[in-house]
Structure formats: structure tokens, C-alpha cells
Amino acid sequence: MKNILFIVVFLLSCIVNTNAQSDSTRSDWKFLGNIQYVTQHYWRGLGKGQLFGEAPAFEPSISFYNKHWNIGVFAGGSFDGIYKTVMPWINYSPVENLWIGLWDIYSPGRNFWRTNPFDFDTTTSRHFVDLMITYQLPWFPLSLKAATVIIGGDSNAEGKKNYTTYFETSYQHRWGNFSAWGGVGVTPWKGLYAKQGGINNLELKLQYNFKLYQPVTMPIFTKIAYNPISEKFHFVVGASLLIPYSF
Question: Structure pTM?
């Protein structure tokens, strides 16, 4: 817990210093609200089952961002009550196209209101704090992602930290309001995502953005995914309402 507080204080102090810069170098902050519905929550090769339930989910989020910072919170819950989560995050971009961030995935499920939110113990916590690094190639729409659970309930059989890790390579192409996204995800060893290392996520997402009222949009999307380790297919349909605001 002390480590989390130290990291948060450090990052917040960086925000203050960034905002204290002259207007000529400071980026304007923007807000984005997202109200999302999906037929099934899906994440890094994991979908329908004991973790995320077997019912549709409601997943709202808000974020504040500028050139160097992206700060927000995501919440999610399935209609059968099995999947419940709150996920605050903070990302920093030291150079263009590179983002480094912390994502605190607090996911106690049915016991959401009976779980200690301040428990970060390796064996008992329902927090999974991801250290995530993403980079998009400047000359080609290819993105690279690396994420490792550094704090929270990620223990192995010996009770030691697993450092569950996930690598992903993805490509996105846009044609006007239509876009296609494809990704390949790998977990190098046994952990939260799989019982063994290997390719655990082959995912394709197709999306169309309906323009409702400038600048509000409503993306409609579908995901088709396959986890080669568990040999499971996943099919998801969803819709979002994106509400941006500049200030």
C-alpha cells in the first residue's frame, strides 16, 4: 500500500509541475465520457466463465487527457452480478507515441461490497496493479503493448508473486467511420491469464462510428476472439456513447 501511495504522490506532483509550465508549452486538457454496453466482458483471452459471468455487462468510464497525460476510471458489472470491477488508471507519455502507466484493476466480483479495498497482499488482495507500456510505430499503424502485474493478488503455488505478464501486438486500419482492429496476445508463463505460457489471445474487432450530434458519437462493434491455450472462442457485440469535452 505504501508503494501505491508513493507512486500516486509522485505522479500527481509531476502533473502539478506540468500544469505549472507556460501556456506556450502546456497542452489543453480534454474530457471523454464513455457509456458502454457489451453482451459479454472480454479481456486478454478471458471471457464467459466464473470470472466474468455469462451475462451482458454495463461498463462506463471517464478520462481526462492532454498531450502527456491520460487519467481516468473504468467501472464494470455484469447483469448476473458475477463480474464487478473498478479500474482507475494514470498514463504518462514522455515522448510521442510512447505511454507508461499504472492500471489498478480492483475486481472482487460478487464480494465487491464485502472486500477490503485497502488490501494489497499478494495472496489475498483483489487488486491487480498493472504496469503497462504501449508504443505505436510512427510510420505504420502497429501498436506494441507490455503489461505486468506488479502489486496485488498475483501469487503462485508457493505464495510468491507471479508477475503475470501479457504482450500484445495489434494493427488497426480505418476507412472513414469504419475501422478494423486485430491483435495477438501472448502470456510468457503461467499466471492469471492461463495455466501455461503461450498465445492466449487472437482477437478481431470491427467497429462503425455513428455520428449523433457533433461531437458525440456512438460506436457499434463486434469482437471475435480465440484463446488457443484454453481452446475457447468468444463472440462479443457492443455499443458505446462517447461524449468528449474540451476545457
Answer: 0.86
